[in-house]
Amino acid sequence: MRRIPSRHIIGSIVLRAGNSSTKRALAPRQICSEVAAMIISCPHCGPRDSSEFYFRGEATPTRPEYDAGTAAATGYVYGRINPAGPQKEHWYHAAACRSWLLVERDTRTHKFLSVTLASEQGR
Ligand SMILES: [Zn+2]
């Protein structure tokens, strides 16, 4: 049986046996084990985990005309509806087919209600 030395150096980190009274204790990690996977059914690739996708945001804002003014530009950049319920969003399938998707997701339940190619919607 190998004895653990009272002081062991790994790289630039010094580990000491026993607890130090001068160091603060680490906060317990908050691990949520009940988070359901968000599965998006890509029209090209089929059901995939949402970690393969890039979330762009709400799909409802439309870019104002060039001469629409500062208020319209500010509303386009910062104004979001953020509904509690179904919302249309843009997602990009970065890990596979690299397609932009127009997704309708319920923001309360994170259920995906519909998924279509953004190119089919003209947006
Ligand atoms: Zn895909």
The radius of gyration over CA amounts to 24 Å
Query: How large is the share of residues in beta strands?
Result: 25-35%
Mean pLDDT: 81
**What is the approximate shape?**
extended
pLDDT under 50 segments (min length 5)?
Answer: 8-17
CATH architecture: 2-Layer Sandwich
- What structural class results from the helix and strand content? mainly beta
Question: Main sheet?
Answer: 4 strands, antiparallel
CATH topology: the name is Folate-binding fold
Oligomer designation:
single chain
Short précis:
The protein is mostly beta strands and 123 residues long. The chain has helices spanning 70-78, 118-121; strands at residues 7-10, 13-16, 39-42, 46-49, 54-58, 86-92, 100-106, 111-117. It has a single domain, classed as Folate-binding superfamily (Folate-binding fold, 2-Layer Sandwich), CATH 3.30.2270.10.
Topology:
Elements: E1 7-10, E2 13-16, E3 39-42, E4 46-49, E5 54-58, H1 70-78, E6 86-92, E7 100-106, E8 111-117, H2 118-121
Antiparallel strand pairs: 1-2, 3-4, 5-6, 6-7, 7-8
Bound molecules: zinc ion.
Residues 42, 44-45, 93, 96-97, 99 line the site of zinc ion.
